[in-house]
Amino acid sequence: MQYVADTIAKLNRTGPAQIEYYQAVEEVLSSLTPLLERDPKYRKHNIIDRMVEPERQITFRVAWIDDQGNVQVNKGYRIEFNSALGPYKGGLRLHPSVYGGIIKFLGFEQVLKNALTGLAIGGAKGGSDFDPKGKSNNEVMRFCQSFMNELYRHIGPTIDIPAGDIGVGAREIGYLFGQYKRLTGRFEGVLTGKKLSWGGSLGRTEATGYGAVYFAQDMLADRGETLEGKTCVVSGSGNVAIYTVEKLYQVGATPVTVSDSSGMIHHPQGINLATLKLLKEVEGASLSSYLVHHPEASYTPVSAYPDGRNPLWSVPCFAAFPSATQNELNAADAEALLHNGCICISEGANMPSTHGAIAQFLAAGICYGPGKAANAGGVATSQLEMAQNASMVQWTFEEVDSRLRNIMNHIYRTASETAREFGQPGNLVLGANIASFRKVADAMIDQGVV
Fold first, then answer.
1. How many C-beta atoms lie closer than 10 Å to residue 120's C-beta?
2. In this predicted model, what pLDDT tens digit does every residue of 251-309 receive, in sequence order?
């Protein structure tokens, strides 16, 4: 394991203070020892040093004018991490927490996640510390246009195809695409997450949440279990969480929690999906408003969280779906989940569990689907949108959903079979990391030292 410590030390020297990135790299590299001991070619070709270094890092100033006529400045990022398997693919995140370390960790995870899908896409990530919350449509438009004024130089349908992430929905994708078309004069599939009327794909909105549930079903099926009739907890209330809740109802489960940056809702009778969609997709309101519609539910504001921990993870459940953000679930949360009967975790967010939480899940032998595997449905369906754009057709929802279901099953089977191959059946962290690393590394070796 010395190579892990050496790699992290080198990253600290060359890219200091990128905590989330170090965490992501350590989590992956710690799983690779069985592969590296079996096959010396990866050390011979120095693949680890090559893979943890992005092919290209782009940072730029984003200046825009607010509605009061004041000039505002944000920082923009696009990290094109690895293109060994295909053009760069990964989302854009707009959130005040964004900085280089966040984008770098997301890009690194994206490389491996995309490899697991079996689709011909590399990995990238981008975004800005701009916060679209509370901004007018015109302010969001002016920001997106300024952001694209730089980004357009680096993207294209066979080069780099960005998508949405936190803070980037159909509105933002529309403004970005419009400016790209204005600058280049080309109408092409350079962004995914577009509206249906001009090149979007049915099923894209639902894909990440649906995929996380499909992955949970596959994990449980191998143990003779199902989600039907089971109580589930879901964190978050954005796109991933909403459609996780929707799919859980479709398979007969009862999701009883959701959360946002202001607090969490616990509704023992089951989260009302129509109310959740109204608050978050129509009104953009806080979850505290949920009680207006359902006074029988309980709401806990962040200020009342015991010891700063989200009490959501202490709600008794059969399965949990962390779908908010990175490091939202720590070791104490994992202990509470296990104590209260949780036997399945399927991560809808990117790296939502800390090292300590993951260690407990693995030691307990429960079904644990790491984010790079369980939440790959979103990027997989983005690639399906690319395929539709390239052939100038639009598939039905049923066609897209069927393909998504098959892709998630492929990801599960790949991770599960790789875990068995290396003598750790059920360890999908090891299975997903080795399978994805091996695929990317072999392509890099085939393509020479570039």
1. 13
2. 999 999 999 999 999 999 999 999 999 999 999 899 999 999 999 999 999 999 998 89
Query: Under the phi-then-psi rule, with left for phi > 0, alpha for psi from -120 to 50, and beta for the rest, what region is 442?
Result: alpha
CA distances from 96 to 130, 302, 373 (A): 6, 18, 27
Contact 366, 334 (CB under 8 A): no
Residue 426 lies in a domain: no
- The torsion region of residue 151 among left (phi > 0), alpha (psi -120 to 50) and beta comes to alpha
Which residue, chain included where needed, has tokens 């919350």? 133
Domain identity same for 147 and 275: no
Q: How many CA atoms lie within 13 A of 441 on its CB side?
A: 24
Q: With contact defined as beta carbons under 8 Å apart, do 328 and 257 qualify?
A: no
Q: Map tokens 């790959």 to a residue.
A: 376
* Strand partners of residue 92: 126, 164
Question: Of 377, 309, 317, 302, nearest to 347 (Cα)?
Answer: 377
One domain for residues 256 and 335: yes
Domain closes at, from 350, 374, 398:
374
Q: Note the pLDDT tens digit of each residue in 303-337.
A: 999 988 999 999 999 999 999 999 999 999 999 99
277 and 307 belong to one structural domain? yes
Cα angle vertex 231, ends 228, 232, to 5°? 100
pTM of the model: 0.94
DSSP character string of 102-163: HHHHHHHHHHHHHHHHTSS--EEEEEES---TT--HHHHHHHHHHHHHHHGGG-BTTTEEEE
Type and span of the H or E element at 357: helix 355-364
Q: Which of 89, 113, 125, 230 is catalytic?
A: 125
What would the pLDDT profile of 24-59 be if each residue is shown by its tens digit? 999 999 999 999 999 999 999 999 999 999 999 999
Known catalytic residue at 125 = yes
Do 313 and 348 belong together in one domain?
Answer: yes
The count of structural domains within the chain is 2
Read off the tokens for 347.
């991560």
The domain spanning residue 177 has which CATH number? 3.40.50.10860
In a domain, 302, yes or no: yes
* Domain assignment of residue 144, given as a range: 54-186
Share of the chain above pLDDT 90, in %: 96
Q: Is 32 exposed, middle or buried (0-12, 13-18, 19+ CB in 10 A)?
A: buried
